[in-house]
Amino acid sequence: MPVEFKDYYATLGVARDASDEDIKKAFRKLARQYHPDVAKDKKAAEEKFKEINEAYEVLGDPQRRKKYDQLGARWKEGADFEPPPGWQGRAGRSPGGAQTYEFHFGGTGFSDFFERFFGRGGRFGFPVAEDGFDAEQFRQPPGPARGSDIEGDILVTLDEVMNGSVRAISLQRANTSTGQTETHNFKVRIPAGVQEGQTIRVPGKGEEGASGAGPGDLYLRVRLAAHPEFRARGADLYYDLDLAPWEAVLATTVSVPTLDGRVNVRIPSGTNNGQQLRVRGRGLPKGLQGGRGDLYVVVNVQLPHQLNDEERTLWEKLSRVSRFNPRQPT
Amino acid sequence: MNLSNDVPLDTIQLFEPDPNAVYTIEAAEHLARVPRRLIAVYYKHGLVSPVVDPDCGGFYFNDEGIRALRRIEYLRTTSGLNLGGIKMILDLMNEVERLRTDLRFLRGY
After folding, report:
1. Cβ contacts (< 8 Å) between B70 and chain A: which residues?
2. Contact A186 B12 (CB under 8 A)
3. How far is the alpha carbon of A329 from chain B, nearest alpha carbon, in Å?
4. Cβ-defined contact of A203 to B38 (cutoff 8 Å)
5. What is the mean pLDDT of residues A56-66?
6. Interface residue A125 vs chain B (CB under 8 A)
7. How far, in Å, are A107, A166, A225 from residue B6 at the CA level?
8. Facing residue for A166 by CB, picked from B14, B107, B108
């Protein structure tokens, strides 16, 4: 099946030979601009935000970017394209080698193109007679076998983690008995406090079972969308704060964004590069346990790029006066 | 692919999976289509980790557990793996997942 090629480089507006750093910068710039919270036209911005995220999901990962570049070399302008041989993506093949099924997701935040070449979903659990397992007691319950399960990723923004949301999903799959393609539309509630990698089980939305047996289930794996300001780890958020050397040395107070408004953070004197300052309870909701994670402000001391004469004189004076030796063991 | 516009949104079936839902071993047996004796064997070999509810004294499975059971069934029935092999693969999959998450975080998306 032809898949519409997606030019992720164009989505992020970067050259094909852009450095990883340039790609990250381009993503952050666009993500800030189209973040559903700040944009005026929310609907259009959300669409764009997801596109940017998908593009970054691929280009921001050197391994995936390499794969993508290989695909792109075979792509002709404007044409749908057939993947090169060996690119089976996640399409299922029966042990005999015949293509057995094909399904597509909509509404997960990833396009068909992504799903096909980078999605990590797949199907599992197709019921066949057990082999290689000898114990009699392990027989399946008698009767026709249930349909296979389907697994797929769903892109969830940090704001959805905060507030929960309802997502419209469409799943296109071949009906195994008629061979016709059917589209199933349904909505799934994303509960507040979901975490990266968490499974959302949608019963009965897997593949149809053979001869009247029930369908399998659909398992959606939560993938947190990249956020222009924060990185998430569990329920905690991390924010990289750039500081001037004297701010870190002499102490200062900085206004830092959080998911719910800005807070002032006091940087104590002598704060070292990489040091983490904790803002309690400003992370993501913890779901089951209740409460919220923390926001960690990670100090990132930046050096001035250009010095004027006066600044240079001052640094030179400092270097003469200071007894600080970073290489001296304490 | 977009949701077709001719279907009014409010008539579409809404699934509201409860993230806190736990199932008894009987319910898990039904949901995952795995006989409960087999679930017990998996448990003994450390392949599944049920949610232990000390109040009720029994053990229960959440959606993650159901998925794990389906995965094990898949590995067992299609790849002909024994329990040791399944355990090794599950451990590796978890480890890969953990490393991927770490890598994503450290790369600073």
Report:
1. 124-125, 149, 217
2. yes
3. 29
4. no
5. 88
6. yes
7. 16, 19, 29
8. B14
Non-local CB neighbours of A133 within 8 Å, separated by 6+ positions = B76, B77, B80, B82
Kindly indicate the confidence band of residue A153, based on its pLDDT and cuts at 50, 70 and 90: confident
**Whole-number Å distance between alpha carbons of A45 and A38:** 9
Dist. CA A139–CA A149, nearest whole Å: 20
User: What radius of gyration do chain A's Cα atoms show?
Assistant: 26
- C-alpha torsion sign, points A246, A249, A254, A257: positive
Locate B57 and state its tokens: 């004294």
A201 touches chain B (CB under 8 A): yes
Kindly provide the ipTM of the predicted complex, given to two decimals. 0.79
Q: How far apart are CA A283 and CA A109, in angstroms?
A: 23
The model carries a pTM of 0.77
Strands of A103-106's sheet in order across: A103-106, A165-174, A181-190, B14-15
Q: CA-CA distance, A301 to A115, in Å (whole number)?
A: 39
